[in-house]
Amino acid sequence: MLNAGLVEVEEERGRRPPFLEGVPKNILEKFEAIFKDRSMSWDQKKSKIDFLAQNVLTGDNLRKFQEFKAMKAKGDAEFRHKEARLSPAAQQANQKMRNLMGRERFQFMQGLNENVKQELMEMWRSRFGGAGQRMMRNRRI
Q1: What does DSSP assign to residue 112?
Q2: CA–CA gap between residue 61 and residue 52 (Å, rounded)
Q3: Which of 17, 22, 51, 123 lies in the 20 to 30 Å Cα band around 136?
Q4: Which residue stretches of 1-141 are H helix?
């Protein structure tokens, strides 16, 4: 019973992409298996999700997927543009952080110069919004 409540809360928060609204459970499970697979890189996940969407989604869901994909591509391009405008020190730190996970990433951040840290936080805030701010505040960086 508790799991059913958690699913409802996740749905209310909009945790699933809009293109998965109303899809049959068996299709949803295929997408969720990809989302949760920690053995795949982000690029591998994107590729598998794209392949699956093109092969199983139809109608409105396929249209929503195409819109979602275009929106993500635009956001990614804007983020890359902001990355390119970082100072050399912030670019170097950002590159190193791409290979770090979890606590390692936050420990690395704590050792950075305050100006570099601020540059990175501003860039991430533009991409992740309030979630990025809460994440940084909770880790006391």
Answers
A1: S
A2: 12
A3: 17
A4: 2-13, 25-36, 42-56, 59-84, 88-97, 102-110, 114-138
User: From the CB of residue 90, how many other CB atoms can be counted at a distance below 10 Å?
Assistant: 21
At 105 the pLDDT is 82
Q: Which residues neighbour 109 within 8 Å (Cβ) at sequence distance 6 or greater?
A: 97, 117, 120, 139, 141
User: Do 61 and 28 touch, CB atoms closer than 8 A?
Assistant: no
pLDDT mean by block of 10 residues, the chain; 141 residues: 39 70 95 91 91 96 95 89 92 85 83 90 75 49 44
CA atoms within 13 A on the CB side of 123: 22
How far is the C-alpha of 17 from the C-alpha of 9, rounded, in Å?
15
37 C-beta neighbours (distance < 10 Å), count: 11
133: Cβ contacts below 8 Å, ≥ 6 apart: 125
